[in-house]
Amino acid sequence: MVKIKILSTSDVHGYLFPTNFSGVNDQQPFGYLRAASVIKQIRAANPDEIVLFIENGDFIEGSPLTSYAFNTHDTEHLNQKLCEMVNDVKPNAMVLGNHEFNYGVDYIADTWQHRNFPILDANITGPNHSKMIDAPYQIIESHGVKIGILGLTTQYVPNWEQPANIAGLKFQSAVQTAKHYVPILKSQADIVVVAYHGGFERDLDNGKPTEQLTGENEGDELLKAVDGIDALVTGHQHRELAQLVHGIPITQPGYRGANVGEIDLELDAQKQIVNRDAKLIKTANYPVDSKLSEVVNGLQATVEKWMDQPLATINGDMRITDYMDARLHGNAYLDLINKIQMDKMGVDISGTALFNDEITGFDRTVTIRNVVNSYVFPNTLVVEQLSGADLKFALEKCASFFTLHDDGRITVSKAFSQPKLQLFNYDYYSGIEYTFDLNQPVGQRVVKVIYHGKPLLDDQTIKVVMNQYRGTGTGGYDTFSTDKVIQSDSDDMPKLIMNYLKQHRTIDAHQPDNLHIIGIDHKKI
């Protein structure tokens, strides 16, 4: 009898330390240094079992720490430490996530150039893939058992990413790629593990689609269409999942190192699986790994010092304390972000999102900490030429964010909260005056749109600035597309915001009044 444990982290997004950097003394129940303790302790406690560890992507982008490295060009120093740290945890494989590509192929290659583990990706091809990818798969032999690991990344990367960042790369369907490689692995290995930086496009219980079937997430189709997969490690969606799907154990360990995924397989003497299970292990219950703390010693203090540099002063209030109210009425912080986008791209309509409910807006003295904690993605900007009808379609999508209950309460609709919360897919607009009537059915809630003092006509041509993520139509905004882009910019938004604040050292906060909601009972929001 042989037992196998397949451990995984995914979507760490540069959160090494147990902090979200909201303040110098902030402490949080997550972080890669905690996850490392979990992995090491499980290995030590199970010496007679096969214990594998897979790092499943989105590691080098997404936190104030990684923003520090990129914006200060201190990448060589920091990335050496990142690589040294991950080397110490000894992954059996790493898979690239979509956000790895935000800084380009060379950045990925430089970060992991001294790695002691393989980067596996079978569905990324092209002349530049060898800079960062070692092989499509590998086979590990231990305790007389051969285990094949196949690496896959969501094929949807080109829909979001700047072309320059993925030059020389092609992204194929994970399902079609697995159909080719899994039989090859099955002929050579006893157990086949697929590590996929992607998630599930259907409800795990009833099989109904939970999103548009664009190919961004192919987890369900992988398990249904590809014979021979014995375990599936997933990520990308930041969901916390551990169960059997179509009889196959799957995990998805959330975000920021909050969990370590564990898949357990038990094999009989003929190397056939007789038991299988999946679970998540919360890292909050584990200490920070002391050895890795030494590796990155002093780094947190360096980042904290960088983040507290002042950029500008706000006259008035640009904090966010009521997130639903900010989405229902707009907010001075969101209005400023739109103003920065319009100023940069020279247009007078802009949309932006309040990405999550950890964003606090800007303090009276705005610091780098405020910026990188408020605008948490390295989005770049595009301008799309649209019709009035196009914009109204997008506004209807925004209006569907809200559910008005019979008792007058307003909550986030199921379309934006299930199977996971998608606050980043609701946009607030500046440059227009618009009204939602929440008493009306979804799709008929936009009752007024005023532009330059006149009703916006369906056939009227307008220019709208948005981030490139939204500009691809992602999030159900089918009216937007790359073929409507007439202008783009290569600088990411955190950089643009910092530059704007440095140029406008004193900024007046104004609560906007351009979004009107019919159906609100303010006492029940």
UniProtKB/TrEMBL annotation:
One of its GO terms (biological process) is nucleotide catabolic process. The keyword Hydrolase applies. One of its GO terms (cellular component) is outer membrane-bounded periplasmic space. The keyword Cytoplasm does not apply. Gene3D superfamilies: 3.60.21.10, 5'-Nucleotidase, C-terminal domain. GO terms for molecular function: hydrolase activity, acting on ester bonds; metal ion binding; nucleotide binding. InterPro entries: 5'-Nucleotdase_C (IPR008334), 5'-Nucleotdase_C_sf (IPR036907), 5'-Nucleotdase_CS (IPR006146), 5_nucleotidase/apyrase (IPR006179), Calcineurin-like_PHP (IPR004843), Metallo-depent_PP-like (IPR029052). Keywords: Hydrolase, Nucleotide-binding, Signal. Residues 328-481 form the 5'-Nucleotidase C-terminal domain. It comes from the Bacteria. Residues 4-239 form the Calcineurin-like phosphoesterase domain. Belongs to the 5'-nucleotidase family. This is Bifunctional metallophosphatase/5'-nucleotidase. It comes from Nicoliella spurrieriana.
